[in-house]
Amino acid sequence: MRKSYRVKTENDFQRVFKSGNSVANRAFVIYQIAKPENSHFRVGISVGKKVGHTAVLRNRIKRYIRAVLTENKLAIKPQIDFLVIARPYARDFDIAKIRHNLLHALFLANIIEEIPDKVEED
């Protein structure tokens, strides 16, 4: 995922976190804020030390999240900034479980209109 698709600065992160709407499932919390001036969505990913004590584990979860978002890039609404925050429940997930739970959370947050069928293939 290109850097233009990422919420990078601390100010942008805090703006979405404080004034955005939140939706959660057991594995992820999604914060979102409307940004009509955006030509495409931007995402911030946070995986804290409660999820995994090693950087290897946290980076693997972030890599899986980015892969799922890249696969479903066309289905995501373009004029929003959103944050994906992993919960400790997602600690031992493989990519199929990350995909299933993340797409469910995005659907609950109305960031995607429907959950793609290819989720069930894995």
Features:
alpha+beta, 34% helix
Summarize the structure.
The chain is of the alpha+beta class.
Radius of gyration: 13 Å
Estimate the strand proportion. Answer: 15-25%
What is the overall number of helices?
3
Order of helices and strands: HEEEHEH
How many structural units, i.e. domains?
Answer: 1
Oligomer status: single chain
**Largest sheet report:** 4 strands, mixed
Strand order across the biggest sheet? 1-2-4-3
CATH class: Alpha Beta
Task: Classify the secondary structure makeup into a structural class.
Answer: alpha+beta
Average pLDDT reading: 89
Unreliable stretches: none
- Helix content percent band: 25-40%
Calculate the terminal CA-CA distance, rounded to whole Å: 22 Å
CATH topology title = Ribosomal Protein S5, domain 2
Q: Strand tally, please?
A: 4
Per CATH, which architecture? 2-Layer Sandwich
- Shape descriptor reads globular
Q: How would you describe this structure to a colleague?
A:
The chain is of the alpha+beta class and 122 residues long. It has one domain: Ribosomal Protein S5, domain 2. It is built from 3 helices and 4 strands, in the order H-E-E-E-H-E-H. Strands 1-2-4-3 form a 4-stranded mixed beta sheet, with helices on both faces. The chain is globular. The model has no long low-confidence stretch (mean pLDDT 89).
Helix-strand layout with pairing:
Layout: H1 10-19, E1 21-24, E2 28-34, E3 42-46, H2 55-71, E4 80-86, H3 95-108
Parallel strand pairs: 3-4
Antiparallel strand pairs: 1-2, 2-4
